[in-house]
Write a structure and sequence with these properties.
By secondary structure, the chain is α+β, with helices and mostly antiparallel strands. It has two domains: about 250 residues, no CATH class; about 150 residues, no CATH class. It is built from ten helices and 20 strands. The strands form four sheets. Strands 1, 2, 8, 10, 12, 13, 14 and 15 form an eight-stranded mixed β-sheet that branches. Strand 4 and strand 5 form a beta hairpin. The termini are far apart.
């Protein structure tokens, strides 16, 4: 290797991202531990072969087994769907449920400079907005010196496609400013990495086009109109012979990779944090066949709602003061409250022990015990039903409660129409939000629905559907 080559391999040549750790080396260099920290950005200056090795190992370095399948259990990302939004969507098409994110929307909602690294509009849309600094260096008298920088605002989005096992990823760069001497004829390329994350499954992920490359100058000139799109097709053909085999659940890791070849000629490669996608062929849910699986769902009901408010108030009481419900044992609590233990969907086809029916029977007996056998009619002649929480279609239902544990259940007779309306909202939401058997979710009780335009589909927030 000549002197320039040695210098280039040993020193920082061009910086794509200002914050992440940097590795500068040769093709034989071992991969340092920081390179495999998939929760942070990382940059490597050196050969394309070594960069490809680092990339492959990063994609493969994420969670495995149950940790992979239950990513949403960590509560890091939660998206909330208000009840009125679910009702607005009652006649919606699948594409409306997806509610594709736009570049501008992402840019307004997320700055990836700090935690969290991603923003989820819902389980079908992910985004990341970051500042991108390109540092140009040049060789002067045998030494590498910083010459100047080009700054872009980079927005990266992912949109799961309705009723398909595909995700479209979009990238937009908008020039911000320059400092010092620039070399804008340098090629700058991007690609979406995607890999089967569960080696117990036969899954593949094909991304088209493989890369998008322009000179720095062309990225600048194209601006917002020059956004590029990649389509990932995620396929699973073989799965373990477990109870979900017919659903063909597949798990995938993905990231965004950027490569600049600056004036000295050595590639500088930047890796984003990785995230995960699950795709399936389940027939009891709608939306896309793929979701971003690190995000958990939540449903908001409203205590003041004239159609389901009684049910909402009952759930609120169960979550905040179990003694105001029945059985109401002091020291017990119910799951499903945000930032606590989630609920998990129990779909009827997987209810081999008939716990859904068992839970219905148990709560009716409980209501009869505490409120009398004629609890179904109140003094005003109003028809009542015995409402239960957790819902019967969860793995936490009353039939599955272990009396030796702190988690329990609650019942209360309430207006039949309120109970039925809440159940309809819940059932539709489970379907639209693609909540599979065993998926975690939360129930949030708010006092009143926020004012919103009739065309608003989702009002999602970061954390921290029958009955």
């Amino acid at each position: 290797m000549n002197t320039i080559g040695k210098l280039a391999a040993a020193l920082l040549v061009t910086t794509l991202i200002t914050a992440p750790p940097v590795a500068a080396g040769n093709p034989a260099a071992p991969v340092e531990a920081q390179a495999l920290d998939v929760n942070r950005d990382y940059r490597y200056t050196g050969s394309s072969a070594q960069a490809a090795e680092i990339h492959a190992r990063r994609l493969a370095a994420g969670p495995k087994g149950e940790d992979l399948h239950k990513l949403a259990e960590d509560g890091k990302y939660v998206v909330d769907t208000p009840a009125d939004t679910v009702e607005l969507m009652s006649d919606a098409t699948g594409a409306d449920v997806i509610d594709p994110i736009t570049f501008d929307e992402c840019d307004q909602r997320h700055d990836g400079a700090d935690e969290p690294h991603w923003w989820f509009k819902n389980k079908y849309n992910i985004c990341r907005g970051t500042d991108l600094e390109i540092r140009y260096n040049k060789l002067e008298n045998g030494q590498i010196k910083h010459a100047g920088s080009t700054f872009f605002r980079r927005v990266f989005v992912g949109v799961a496609q309705n009723a398909e096992n595909r995700v479209k990823f979009g990238l937009r760069l908008i020039h911000w400013y320059d400092t010092g001497e620039t070399f804008k004829d340098s090629p700058l390329s991007f690609k979406v990495g995607c890999l089967n994350a569960d080696l117990n499954r036969q899954s593949s992920c094909a991304v088209s086009p493989p890369t998008a490359e322009k000179t720095v100058r062309q990225w600048e000139l194209d601006g917002a109109s020059g956004a590029v799109w990649f389509t990932a097709t995620l396929t699973t053909t073989g799965v373990p012979a477990d109870k979900y085999a017919a659903e063909k659940r597949g798990y995938f890791a993905f990231d965004l990779v950027s490569t600049l070849v600056g004036p000295i000629g050595v590639p500088d490669t930047g890796f984003s944090p990785t995230e995960h996608i699950r795709c399936d062929e389940a027939t009891y849910v709608s939306g896309s066949r793929c979701v971003f699986t690190h995000v958990a769902s939540s449903l908001s009901l409203f205590a003041d709602d004239p159609r389901h408010g009684e049910s909402a108030r009952f759930i609120r009481d169960a979550q905040t003061d179990i003694t105001s419900t029945k059985p109401g044992v002091v020291g017990k609590k119910v799951p499903g409250r945000i930032n606590e233990e989630p609920l998990h969907r129990l779909y009827k086809d997987y209810d081999t022990d008939k716990d859904i029916a068992g839970s219905h029977r148990k709560v009716r007996r409980t209501c009869q015990y505490y409120f009398g056998v004629d609890y179904t009619i109140n003094d005003a002649g109003e028809v009542l039903q015995c409402d239960e929480y957790p819902f019967a279609t969860t793995y936490e239902n009353s039939a599955r409660v272990d009396e030796g544990r702190v988690l329990t259940y609650a019942v209360r007779p309430l207006n039949a129409l309120h109970n039925e309306t809440a159940g309809q909202i819940y059932g539709r939401w489970l379907t639209d939000d693609h909540i599979l058997d065993s998926d975690p979710f939360y129930v949030i009780i708010r006092q009143a629905a926020p004012a919103r335009s009739a065309n608003v589909r989702f009002d999602q927030r970061q954390a921290a559907r029958g009955r």
